[in-house]
Amino acid sequence: MKVGIDMGVAAGGVAAELDLEELLATRLLVQGNSGSGKSHLLRRLIEQSAPWVQQCIVDPEGDFVTLADRFGHQVVDAARTEAELTRIAGRVRQHRVSVVLNLEGLDVEQQMRAAAAFLGGMFDAERDHWYPVLVVVDEAQLFAPAVAGEVSDEARKLSLGAMTNLMCRGRKRGLAGVIATQRLAKLAKNVAAEASNFLMGRTFLDIDMARAADLLGMDRRQAEMFRDLARGHFVALGPALSRRPLPITIGAVETSARSTSPKLTPLPEAPEDARDLIFTPGPEEARAVVRKAPPPAPIPTADLLAQLSRPKPAPMPAEQPVFAVIDEAEREAGIEAVLREILEDADAAFRSDAVLYQDFLVRCRIRRVPGEPLPLSGFRRRLAVARAGVDERSADGEAWATALALSEALPDDLQGVFLMVARAATNGDPCPSDATLARAYGSHSPRRARRLLAYFEERGLLVARTDFHGKRVLAFPDLGCETAPGDPDAPGEAAGQRDAAE
């Protein structure tokens, strides 16, 4: 089905139509300096295509949240954990809901990590949910930078990898990338090169004009025209727009951004008491007056000698504790028993840490475990160690102590999987299967388990290899040990137990 999106007016006064079905297959790159109308163009495209295709907008400034009132987009606040954003993205694809990922209020590195987690969740959705989605990324140079900046290498690799997957491999999964950037020179070339449609707006720097002219197949001498483009005027090229460079003017939009361009307003008349208004604190300003304490009076020499010659006072008897002394061994035994009860539940692996933590607190009260309850962070750590299933033989070794130290640098939701494979290596047990690792992570997808092992290998924590029988072996350079060969396609422990029972 061919759907034409009205983007405005083209040269000659004809309507500028964008073939939506062709756009979903060929992707779009929008470039324009600040104030060129780039966000206005994206808003026009989103509004016109909203009735026809599911949409996901990665919004670093919170300008597109106004779409929710008019077109029913759900706003996803990015101030969540990366694992939670990944799960939300999977449900977005499953239920085909248009969303706006609001990254406002986060610093650049947090925005990169949140966007990478959300795009990764949409990319890794099950094949049954590969419906067409228009993924709009504003300020794409933040998420796919051409060079390393002040952010960490890990955050840059995660974000750049997610953007590369979107533009290079997303078409087969129904993801159509629409990326907008202020400067082409700051955008990674492998991300920009995957777009087949272009809308180039006003730009002034020579390097950006040269790249824009190259992408549009124009002569370098014609690149000067990009300096003269007015706000809202773009040059279009691509199979979804035009086979030749075509100047277009973007039409009006129905919604508006929360932030607008600054407008000049006349200054008010200067008040006569302007000096007092500036230098006199208001009544709501609590100013603490800091006064230096006077120096102490000098002590006479005779008094100092008398103090030194006095005998030491007898020590005070130790005070009896008001509360009963807590037996740490009893407390640890109670916590271990509660953790075992939780892990014995077959559905515990697929519940969130917050739900398991509430269950843990209730069980501790039932068992009357003494002392203060574990905090959530401590519970996650203990739960990860318990899920690994370490025994007394490996718990006393140096290799397991090293594995615990290495796991502290990983996110909370990945520590349990890493400790499980590390325990198998320290004990010389067969490598766990993909189904077992996926269950430890709280997922049913074996592909997610393989991605976790690839993530550990990228960080240099382990090395995966396959023997001549097709079985997997995981070697840990820092631990000096490796797992026995294991079948990656074997059923999980819980599934194997059910099959044996039947």
From TrEMBL:
Source species: Kumtagia ephedrae
Compositional bias segments (type: Low complexity): 484-495
InterPro entries (alphabetical): AAA+_ATPase, ATPase_Atu1862_pred, HerA-like, HerA_central, P-loop_NTPase
Location of region: Disordered: 482-502
MF terms (GO), sorted A to Z: ATP binding
Keywords: ATP-binding, Nucleotide-binding
Name of this chain's protein: ATP-binding protein
Pfam families associated with the record: DUF87
Domain annotation AAA+ ATPase: ranges: 24-285
